Every structure is written in C-alpha cells, then in structure tokens.
Amino acid sequence: SLGIGDDCAILQVPKDYELAVSTDTLVAGVHFPLTASAEDIGYKALAVNLSDLAAMGAEPAWLMLSLTLPDENADWLTGFVKGLRQLMDQYHMQLVGGDTTRGALSITVQVFGFLPKGKALRRDGAKPGDLIYVSGTLGDAGLGLKKILNEMQCDHPLQYCIDRLNRPTPRIATGKALLAFSHCAIDISDGLFADLGHIAEESHCAALIHLEQLPLSDELKTYYKDAFDWQQILTSGDDYELCFTISPEQRANIKQLEKQQNIALTCIGEICEGQGVRCQHRDGQELVLTHSGYNHFK
Amino acid sequence: SLGIGDDCAILQVPKDYELAVSTDTLVAGVHFPLTASAEDIGYKALAVNLSDLAAMGAEPAWLMLSLTLPDENADWLTGFVKGLRQLMDQYHMQLVGGDTTRGALSITVQVFGFLPKGKALRRDGAKPGDLIYVSGTLGDAGLGLKKILNEMQCDHPLQYCIDRLNRPTPRIATGKALLAFSHCAIDISDGLFADLGHIAEESHCAALIHLEQLPLSDELKTYYKDAFDWQQILTSGDDYELCFTISPEQRANIKQLEKQQNIALTCIGEICEGQGVRCQHRDGQELVLTHSGYNHFK
C-alpha cells in the first residue's frame, strides 16, 4: 500500500482473497465514559472495529483513522496512540491513512481484513436445527458501565467488568478458526438479544435462548448473588463477544477449538423455524423483554 | 460486495486493479458553515472524498458513511441523502456500510476506487523540467466563504463563489484521463501553495508559480478589480481542483484533453531543482506569503 502521505491509500488484495471492510465511530459520552483514559479510548476504537472483522472470520491487515479533537493535546494523543498501537502491533496492522479535524472528540476507525473468497461468516447463514454459541461471558461491560455511571448501590469495585468495558477482546483468532465449522456469526455489540435478533431476521429463522446456559463471569455472578437481571444481561452493550451457529455434528470441533484457544465457547440455544428471539428459563417459563437492546437514538 | 446489513462489507477488486481508499471527516462550523443546507452538506461530504480519488486517477466504486447527528431529524436526513445521492448516482457508486451515532454533527465518508495496478498519480512523481498545471479556477471557494462569514464589505452576491464552496466539482474524469500523460497529481483542498508544497516535498524538487498565469473566475476578477489578494487566492481552501505535472512534450495532449472534457487546464509554473514553492510576478518580483495554507489547528 502507498501509505500515509498521498491523497489515497492504495491497497493490494492477495489473489483468492476478498477485502472485508468495517467502520465504527466512537463519540465521547456515548461510546466511552467522559472519564475514560486516552489509552483506553485508543484501544477501544480499534477493538470494536476488529470485533467486526472477527465476526466475518477475517484476518486484520490495515486501518484508517479519522480523529476529531477539541484542541491540540500532546499528552492525550500520546496515550491514544499507545492504546491503539497495542492492538495494531498484536495483529501486525498498518495505518494507511486518515485525517485529523478540530471539533468535539470523536474517533472513526476503518479496518480492512482478508477473507478467503466466498468463505465469510454471515448473518444470514443460520438454519433451523443449528446450535447457537457465544464466546466468553456476557453482560460484564454493561455492569461495568452501570458502576462507572454510579447507577447502582454497590461496594464491589467491579474492576473486571470495568476492564471488559474499556478493553474488550476482539475474537480474531476464534473468528478465523470458525471459517472451518460455521457459516454464521455476528459480534455482540448491542446486547445478545438484539444481535442474535439480526441473525434470526437475516436468516429468516427464529432463535431460542436458554437463559440458565448463558455464560457469566464470576464477578457478575457474585454481584447478582443468583438474582440475575436477565434483561440487563441480554440487552446491555459492549460485550464484543462472538455469537455464532453450527450444525450439531460440529459440536466436537467446537470443544476442540475451546481447548486450542483457551476460550469459553458455550452453547446457549438453538435456531428454529419461525421468527424472532425467545428467551426461556429452565422451568419453561418465558422471559419477555421490555426493550430489545442498546440504541443510540433511544 | 456483501452490502449493508452484515458486520463488514466484502469488496472484490477486479484482476489487474488496486484499490484506492480515502477518508475525510466534515465537522459543522469547520468544513461547512453552520448555515449550510443538509443537501449541500451531503453533496460536499462525498465530493471532497471523490476529489482524493480524482487526484490518484481512480474510478469511484463504493462508499461508507459514518454519520454523527445531534438528534433524529427526518427532514435533515432526507436533504443530506439527496445531496449525497446526486454524486453517488453520477458515479454509479454503491453504499456498502457505515454507522450512525448521536453527538455533535460530524460526517465521515470513505471512498473506494479502482486503479490499474502501478499507474496511480502520486505526489512524489514530479521531476525538474515538468510543467505544473491546475484544472478549473482557484480561490473561488475561499472568497465564497469570506462572503458567507461576513468578513468583507461587498455588495456583490458572489453566488458563483458560494456555489463553488458548497458544491465543489470532483475532477474524476480528468484524473482518469491524466493516467495516460502524468505521474503526479494532488487535489487542492488546503490552497495551491500548501498542496503544491506537498508535491515539491515528496518529489524532492522545488516549484515555481507564475502568479499572473493562475486561472481565475470572472466573478473573482470582478470582485478584485485587478487588485488581486494573491495570498488569499493561494492559501484559501476548498478549491478541490487538481494540480498535476507533465513533461513538456505532453503539452499537446493536455490541450486535447481540455477540449474533450470542456475543462480549463492551465499551465501555472514549472518544477525545478531545489526545494519549496516560490511565487513570482511577471516582472520577476517574488511574493512572500505570511502563512502557507489552511490548517485546522492554527
């Protein structure tokens, strides 16, 4: 690629590969707390975009950065670049362009990744009978955000949850490995209920979630003391885990992948005929949600 | 391409082509007046990005849009999309992704275009002896902005200059045609002096501008009544014309291109040994600028 310093970046895609491209904007006070450190913001701006690549099964290659800043602040920029670089270096990514502008703090990152032609994990790839899996644990970041915003009475520092909010882990390696076993994935950015809803809608299927099978962190379990706020867990944003589907005969491969990558991959339900997402307790009782997920314009 | 509705867009680049990618952010009050119409903003957000493709000689293909809006406003959105669509349709472009966010009005557009492998017009392609050309006329948008901001005493409506500010013409066809005659171009977004300075710097050469050869619109000439503010003309932003260099033997081809495309392509100076950009009057007197161009952080 031609790199920074010309009017455009010039990208060459390897033969037999397609280019996966995603863009996400982070705005102060919306996508990160106003108190977030520059380093966390830099990390997260790239992490949430990498999560989109992970959800397609793509290999990260390049990024572009559009930074809008209220003023020149060398310390802030140094921190921001440090956080960004941590993930860039981890995935050997190259910055190929972007611009800086004066205005309210806002960060737009575009990421580019390679995909073997025709192999992408897509939202419309689920079929009735498929099992639904998620990586990692759910609801941590949402709880961390409540803690930061002082929206609850709680003496527990909830540091793990706050770290999950500020430093989500893009599941790149898992997404790439899933190309061999799955046709369908999404990253959970707006809560499992809403994002699994996208899979159901695009695949013209229904999805059934077994609530007690949802993978939860020790810290979250400690906080809820078994009185789980399922609505919160299902609809809070910023998990950045993968939700994917497989046909049941791939179950053993997923077990193996869990061990290889030292990551929890948990079966949480199944794809059925019909439409919409239903959430069921072990005793058969259904949970009806009063809202479906994080929405910036709500 | 997979299109909107999945985690990433998937782009396939034709054999023997590279992908040219550019991104630009427009912030209210910085890149367009707070009074600008939604339609003009939509048009300009794409135009300034297409101008970057034009400067490489690329053929527009796709765009992505990240829109940050203070609130839901259907009328504003309708106008914005109408302006954006005008250029999308003109260049048969497809919207392949993006996101919307709540916050201070800000628009980031990424454009993707095709380039025959290894043929791009680059900033570092100029050589001593080359002639320097610009398309269209210079300084109109800058004058239009002064008018809008009420920074001057002037009864003339300057509508042409204001239109040039709000509706710049990306020189796509010219950029593509130049691939046959030129190796070096840039689009003039920050004023000729600064942008020609990038060519000089990247090409390790100097550039000499003959002031009286600069192409000026009738409206601008009428306004200045022969008392030209050269500093303003050379350093005001938003022209979005092309500045390119050719070897002298290509002169006839440029004449032909002018006729074919019905566009003014004017020789304004030459590339020399040395460094920096010098501006000379017909009588040999040099103009020394007190600042070099538009800079958002100045």
Written description of the protein model:
Two copies of one chain form a homodimer. Chain A contains nine helices and twelve strands. Chain A has helices at residues 38-56, 74-90, 140-148, 159-166, 172-178, 192-203, 218-224, 230-235, 251-261; strands at 9-11, 17-27, 59-69, 94-102, 106-116, 131-135, 184-188, 206-210, 241-246, 265-272, 276-280, 286-287. In chain A, the strands form two sheets. The first copy, chain A, has a seven-stranded mixed sheet with strand order 7-9-6-10-8-11-12. In chain A, strands 2-5-3-4 form a four-stranded mixed sheet. The mean pLDDT of chain A is 92. At the A-B interface, strand 1, strand 2, helix 1, strand 3 and strand 4 of A face strand 1, strand 2, helix 1, strand 3 and strand 4 of B. Strand 1 of chain A pairs antiparallel with strand 2 (17-27) of chain B.
Q: Describe the sheet with the most strands of chain A.
A: 7 strands, mixed
Largest interface: A-B, 58 and 59 residues
Question: Which oligomeric form is depicted?
Answer: homodimer
The backbone outline of chain A, from C-alpha atoms, is globular
Structural class of chain A: alpha+beta
Helix content of chain A: 25-40%
* SS elements, strand count of chain A: 12
Give the topology string of chain A: H per helix, E per strand: EEHEHEEEHHHEHEHHEHEEE
For the biggest β-sheet of chain A, the strand order reads: 7-9-6-10-8-11-12
Q: Tally the helices of chain A: what do you get? A: 9
What would the average pLDDT of chain A be, to the nearest integer?
Answer: 92
Radius of gyration of chain A: 19 Å
Strand % of chain A is 25-35%
| Residue windows where pLDDT falls under 50 for at least 5 positions of chain A | none
